[in-house]
């Protein structure tokens, strides 16, 4: 009897000990809630960044695939001698859709049926796509053709203007035009917002222009997509805006001027320093506008030249110094928080120099890679 009682007592103590151990191993409600709160905070911080990176990669991939498909289609048209000879963009698009699947075509009076009406520029200004109904607006060159809206089968929407001066060469599969065979603004995200120029695909832009204002093979392989004048084409950054850009790290700006920073504004308009000319490319541009003078290099200052005003016309017309026959172009390279490199182009000379970032005369020449 005594043994049974002792066993029962020991068993009770063991049960009590196990219960206490179990109680000590469990989480309290407060601990669980705190853990969930921490997980929520971490998720709130990291998930937007992950989604942004995913979207940027997806848009960049879609852009690369589309441009390659478009290149294949136009090269096929060139080989078949069906790239040149059209008097209207609509005639060109009707031939293009035999090479790349197009589900809808909208004439210049109905562009909003194929393309989102509102486009935001890099500085937040709204552009109405309906106002791009001619080549003079879309390509910034008056080719005498209309803009046509196109919806591709892969979900990409586009505005296209054709250049009737396109010259095909089917035997070597090369084609060219005075400036470009066509200008195209396309949106790889379709009807999904935002439609922000310089924000969501390739240097963060999901609306992008394909085609060069200046012919690639004439400027060392460069494709100049935009020539922007200070004050009208781009605006200077404030110190606060520039510091934020440095902090974000997306534009490649390393330092900031204490006041109105025109160079930083040019970088923003082009979508980053990688979309601006290097000093070598500025030398190649000089070689182009000075009739292929081979004495001009990346850093040489050369005189006794003759500026070809026809080739330089787009630069001169945009420059504050157009009446005096000069212009200068920002490079994508900083020298300090006060100065950056630029190349100056005059009627008989050109030189590479450093300029105050406050200078309000520099052109933003944006490259398309």
Question: Can you put this structure into words, describing what you see?
Answer:
It is a single chain. By secondary structure, the chain is of the alpha+beta class. 33% of the residues lie in helices and 20% in strands. The chain contains eight helices and 15 strands.
H/E element sequence:
HHHEEEHEEEEEEEHHHEHEEEE
Q: Helical segment tally?
A: 8
Main β-sheet description: 6 strands, mixed
Morphology? flat
Q: Which strand-content bin applies to the residues?
A: 15-25%
Number of β-strand runs = 15
**Secondary-structure class:** alpha+beta
Extract low-pLDDT stretches. 198-211
How big is the Rg?
30 Å
How confident overall, as mean pLDDT?
A: 77
Proportion in helices: 25-40%
Q: Give the termini separation.
A: 95 Å
Total number of domains: 2
- How is the largest sheet built, in terms of strand order? 10-15-12-13-14-11
Overview features:
single chain; 369 residues; alpha+beta; six-stranded mixed sheet
Summarize the model shown.
This protein has 369 residues and is α+β, with helices and mostly antiparallel strands.
List the helices and strands and how they pair.
Layout: H1 2-25, H2 29-79, H3 89-96, E1 102-106, E2 118-120, E3 126-128, H4 135-138, E4 147-152, E5 157-162, E6 167-169, E7 174-176, E8 182-187, E9 207-210, E10 224-228, H5 239-248, H6 262-270, H7 279-289, E11 302-303, H8 313-318, E12 327-334, E13 339-345, E14 349-356, E15 362-367
Parallel strand pairs: 12-15
Antiparallel strand pairs: 1-4, 2-3, 4-5, 5-8, 6-7, 8-9, 10-15, 11-14, 12-13, 13-14
């Amino acid at each position: 009897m005594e043994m049974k009682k002792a066993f029962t007592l020991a068993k009770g103590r063991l049960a009590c000990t196990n219960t206490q151990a179990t109680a000590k191993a469990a989480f309290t409600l407060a601990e669980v809630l705190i853990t969930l709160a921490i997980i929520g905070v971490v998720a709130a911080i990291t998930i937007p960044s992950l989604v942004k990176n995913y979207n940027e990669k997806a848009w960049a991939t879609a852009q690369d695939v589309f441009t390659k498909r478009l290149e294949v289609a136009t090269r096929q048209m060139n080989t078949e001698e069906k790239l040149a000879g059209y008097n209207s963009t609509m005639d060109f698009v009707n031939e293009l859709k035999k090479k790349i699947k197009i589900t809808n075509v909208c004439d210049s009076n109905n562009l909003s049926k194929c393309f989102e009406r509102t486009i935001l520029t890099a500085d937040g200004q709204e552009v109405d796509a309906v106002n791009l109904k001619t080549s003079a607006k879309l390509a910034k060159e008056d080719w005498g053709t209309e803009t046509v809206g196109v919806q591709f089968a892969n979900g990409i929407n586009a505005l296209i203007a054709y250049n009737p001066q396109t010259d095909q060469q089917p035997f070597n599969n090369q084609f060219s035009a005075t400036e470009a065979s066509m200008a195209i603004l396309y949106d790889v995200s379709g009807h999904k917002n935002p439609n922000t120029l310089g924000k969501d695909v390739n240097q963060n832009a999901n609306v992008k222009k394909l085609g060069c204002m200046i012919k690639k093979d004439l400027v060392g392989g460069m494709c100049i997509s935009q020539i922007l004048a200070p004050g009208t084409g781009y605006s200077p950054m404030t110190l606060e805006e520039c510091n934020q850009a440095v902090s974000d790290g997306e534009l490649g700006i390393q330092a900031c001027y204490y006041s109105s920073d025109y160079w930083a504004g040019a970088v923003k308009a082009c979508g980053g320093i990688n979309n601006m000319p290097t000093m070598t490319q500025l030398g190649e541009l000089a070689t182009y506008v000075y009739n292929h003078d081979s004495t001009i290099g990346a850093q040489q200052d050369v005189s006794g030249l003759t500026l070809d005003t026809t080739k330089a016309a787009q630069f001169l017309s945009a420059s504050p110094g157009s009446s005096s026959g000069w212009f200068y172009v920002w490079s994508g390279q900083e020298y300090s928080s006060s100065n950056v490199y630029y190349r100056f182009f005059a009627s008989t000379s050109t030189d590479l120099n450093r300029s105050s970032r406050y200078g309000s005369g520099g052109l933003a020449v944006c490259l398309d890679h």
